[in-house]
Structures are given as structure tokens and as C-alpha cells.
Amino acid sequence: MSTSTTISSSSSSSSTSSSTVTSSIANNKNEWSIKASDVAQRANNPIRKIVDNIKKPEMARPLIPLSLGDPTIFGNLKAPEVLVRTVEQNLKSYRHNGYIHSAGSIEARKAIATRYTLPKNPLTENDIIIASGCSGALDLAITVLLNPNDILLVPRPAFPLYATLCESKGILIRQYNLLPNKEWEIDLTHLESIINDEININQHRIGAILVNNPSNPCGSVYSQEHLINILHIAEKYKIPIIADEIYGGLVFPSSGKEFYPMANLTTTVPILSCGGIAKEFLVPGWRVGWVCIYDPLSVFQDIRKGLFALSQLILGANSLIISALPAILTPIPDSDDAISLENFHLDTIEQLEDNAKLCVEHIRKIPGLDVIIPSGAMYLMFSINFTQFKDITNDIEFAQKLLSEENVFVLPGTAFNIPGYCRIVFCAPSDKLEDAFTRMNEFCIRHSQPEFLTNTFSSFSLIDKDNSKLSTIEPRTMDDPVNNNRNYNNYQSTTPVDDVKNITPPTMLFPATVQQALNNGNIYEASKELLQNEAREH
Length: 538
Known about the structure:
This protein is of the alpha/beta class. The chain contains 18 helices and 16 strands.
């Protein structure tokens, strides 16, 4: 037999053997049937579903992400020096590298209890369960109070995690409406009607009412009176409260609002309050949150046992970060650390409040948009009047086109179950926000109906030919909550549209580009240039 014949025969044999192995593997593979669990398949994050389907453009101008609720993303908001130093010292001590109690160390739980104890609802370390971030705390609170097919009442709009957690566990949600024309207060009539329907008609068990104050995504802060009215409903129907109060330390002084912990307004309603260090101390990646058990009537005894049992599923949060909690939550009064933390807090609030004001001032000058003034947190919602746009029909389309054309990323309200709005996170430095709103101005002008651009132009400062004075529409300010929403159906310019062309433009009032456009009778270009210049000047 020749060498070539031997090789050919060997090759043929090898090929047959390989084919047999492949066939065997395929048959073996078909014998396996492995599927994700029901819990995994039910897990769904509405924000991720929308964001992942939005196409990210490649543009020369840098991306300005006003979409992600991470205050650290731009680097202008930094964690307090006391916290960083304490973590560094504790790391180098090698005393915080081991396992701790699944609900957190005694020292850390005592610090949380001391910080958040209330006159009407005092706390001890036995009322505290530390979790992996506030989201982990919410997971514990929802899991301990509700079974599959129970109902959790949540706001609309709302942080989508509430629905994600419930759906993964087979828990049902019902959404009660928030009222944008009342600074996102809860529609109490709607809330109570849902409760009555579910109890009397659908015969479902309502496990809890979830109240988010201050609000993500709205930036609203509820009054004491409004919170008491919510508690009255909870008391009437004997439904416990889950209070998401992670933004309780971020309220703007000029808003005239004050944060009231719900547990300090009742001596009857049991409350699980969820908080953490992520936002107030600007360390969302450090993943430490907690549940405070406020139980004035001692009706949460089983719930307390359940929470401590559930905490054993992941054996607690990060031991190193937990070790720093006493230093930042209970510093020695009037010490250097206490003063440093107070200054840090005031500086953070000032930056966020200034950014909120900047956002409101700019958005209200953009055609087709309006905004409800935020009173706290780091978010606001702006509304979109689609009748003013020639080729934008919904909030997802608005967000997609804004990203594609201007590289500015905002989250559509549909992600929060409130179409027709978008959410902005205003943690960015002021120059980034200025740039973003300049681009949004250009975008909205480009897509606006021509007649609305005429109205937009005529609503800005113009010469009053009769007495040579400026006629202006007074701007609404951060502390003017009465006129938070523009009524587009009744919106009227102070100058008739047909008369705009006939106005003699003042020589010194407008920049040269605006002046030239007016001389040429081109209202579109004049409006565009005027808005662009106003955006750049703020």
C-alpha cells in the first residue's frame, strides 16, 4: 500500500470518527433541558429594556448623559473626606475583612438607629437590618411583607425597580397616580379607589403601600399635611407602609419644603423605612443601605424575625464600608469631623439646588417643553407638548432623536410609566448642563411647527412701540409653585402673530445674527438665533 493510500485511509477513518463524536455530542446535547427559573424569567427592568434599544450615535460632540442617576459620573460631586479617610484607616487596620452578622455589625446598626430614631418612633439596633444598598433594602422589605399574588401599591411615575422586584417574585403591583399640577402629590382619591377595588371586588390582599419621598423621578417633596393624609388611608385599611426615603437628606432650602420622615407622623401605622449612603454621601457603588423597622404598636414581630432571616440569604453587605457608618452617621458633636460633614452636606445641596434652578430656567425657554419645579433629590421631569412638533409623536422618539442628533441622553417617561415626559438627572457640572440645553434648544427649534416658533419668538422681550419700554413675560422662579405647568391649550403670545413681522427690531437689543434675520423677515432664523444666544448667556 502506498503512503498516499495510507494517509487517505487514515484521513477517512479520522473523518468518520470525528463525525461519530459530533453526532454523539449532538444527541447528548438534545437530552439536556435546562431553562432559567421562573424568577429569572420574570425579572425585567423597564429602563434597561428601553435604554438597550436606543441606538447610541457616533458623533464629534461628546455625549452628555443626563439619564443615569449616578451623582459621581461627572466627577464634580465627591464623597466626604471623613468617609474616605475612615474607610482607608479601617482597611489598613485589617480588622474589617471577615464575616460579620448578616444584618450588619452591632456598631453600625447602633449608629443607624441613633441617627434615625424619632420622638414618636424610637429605634434600637434590633430595629435595623443593613442590606446591599437601598435597592437591597427595598428587596428585603417587599419580600418580607408580600407573597406571590399579593398587591403592592406603587406610584406612577415611579422608580422602575419596584416593579422589577415584584414581578420577579410573582407579586402584583397596582399604580396610584401622582398629580403633576400639584407638584406630584399622590392622588389620594385614586389611591383609595384602588384599595377598595382590590379588596372588595378583586379580593386581593394588599401587602403594603410604597411611598417614595423625596421622589425619583419627580424631585418632589411632600408636605407634612399630605403625608398625614396618606397615613390616614393606611390606618383606615390597616395596610403597612414601605417608605423609600433614600433622598431624605437632599431637600432644597429655597423650595420652602422640609423632609418629614413618615414614621415621625404616626403612632399607629407600622413602617419599613428604606435608606442608605448612596446618594446623600455620593457613593452609590459602595452598596450599603438599610431597613428601619418603625413598629409603634408591636405588630411587626413576625416581620422583624422575617427580615433577620432574609438577611442571611446573602450574609450581609460590605463589611469594610459598614465599618465606616458610625463615623459619618454619629460623629462627635462639634468635632472637626462633624463640622466637615455638615459643610460637605451644605455644599452638595447648594450644587444640586443651583443645577435645579439652571435646568428650570433653561427648559422653560425651549419651545414645546415645560417643567415642574423640583424641591429635592437630583431629578426633574419635563413635559413635551407634541402638538408643537412636526415630526415627534412620543417621548421615546423624542429621547432617541435627541440622542441621535445632539448626543444628549435623557430618559423617556415611558420608562417610569408616564408617557409624554422625560427625566433629567441634574448632577452634571453647570457648563455641561448649559451645553446640553443649548443642544436641546437647537433640537426643539429644528423639529418645531413654524407657527409655534413664531409664538415662541413673540413671547420674548420686544420693544413696545407706544411707550418705548420693554414688554416682557415675567419668568417663573424656583419658589413660584403656583404656575408650575404651562397650559398649552390656552397659551397665548403677548404679541399677535401677524404683527411680529411689522415690529421694528431695536438696534441694540438683539445680536447681529438675530437682527439680520429680523430685517429679512425670517422669524424661524430669528427665533433660532435668539434662543441659542439666550442659552449661551445663562
